[in-house]
Amino acid sequence: MTYAYLLAGENLELAEAELKGFLSSQEIEEDPKREERLALTKKEPSQIKRLALTHEVSKVIERSKKLETEYEPENSFAVRAEDLTGEKNTKEVEKNLGSEIKTKKNSVDLENPEEVIKVYILEDEYVIGRQILEIDRSLFNQRKNQNREFSSPVSLDPVLARVLVNLSEVSTGEKLLDPFCGTGGILLEAGLCSIDVYGLDIQVSMVEGTKKNLEDYGILNHDIREGSINQVEDIFDLEFDAVVTDVPYGKASKKDGKTLEKFLESAPKLTEGKIIFMSDKENLDGMSPEFDIYVHKNLTRYIYILQ
Ligand SMILES: C[S@@+](CC[C@H](N)C(=O)[O-])C[C@H]1O[C@@H](n2cnc3c(N)ncnc32)[C@H](O)[C@@H]1O
Questions:
Q1: Which pTM value belongs to this model?
Q2: To test ligand 1's pocket by mutation, which of 148, 162, 181 has the most ligand atoms within 8 angstroms of CB?
């Protein structure tokens, strides 16, 4: 069986890396094959809703140069096409495949179909599949900073926070530490994926705020402590499966030039797994970021992956 993931177009490289991290978290050691915005894998995934930069997943029925399939839906269906070339007419494809698979037993229902048949239009091929899940990305917006009871301008966007969690390859029940947890943006996304969350922040207001935000979303199992990165190894005498964070930036990072240095020194002692962090700096101690994310004209964020 082949599964087709339709990746978000804004930052394709990051979407693909998120998918790889997610697959690894599901113990699927498979490199997806990418064609335009489509990434194809063989193994059946679970927890697909963890993905933030994937729009939907379909089970592939047919790949063909012609728009045809022997598949006949048994109930009501709708055909929905995605043009991945930027030059084909999706409406025509939907109409043509719709009439091809229409039988006496089934019916077309564009509003509320029992099955959605997807056609991904590539340069010289059609990939036809049954949609198994459309990811409701508006749920991420509902968790934005302004919609949480405890908020601060430092809070990380939920989509980005979830991407960092997926890049870390951490699975359900494993331990993730954010040593600069702020309002808990990363821990909230990790907690929603049933990952065990640990946090540290130098400000007591952030520690209390993170606990509140986690609990408001039903994440009651957490360990959030007040303290400095300088003491992180004593505060948490634990081995983590990953360390994921958004390092202090702007004024906070300038106040104490050693914060980042200390983080880079401690993180490898806290985990043998992935160390993922976000920064506003394009170059850190000679390290180059893996990905950059344009936020607005004065802010680009950079994702670093240490190990
Ligand atoms: C960029 S913010 C993190 C934002 C967070 N990702 C969120 O979604 O809210 C960085 C955080 O690091 C904390 N911080 C600054 N210096 C620190 C230090 N030396 N040790 C621990 N935390 C520190 C700040 O209080 C701030 O909350």
A1: 0.95
A2: 181
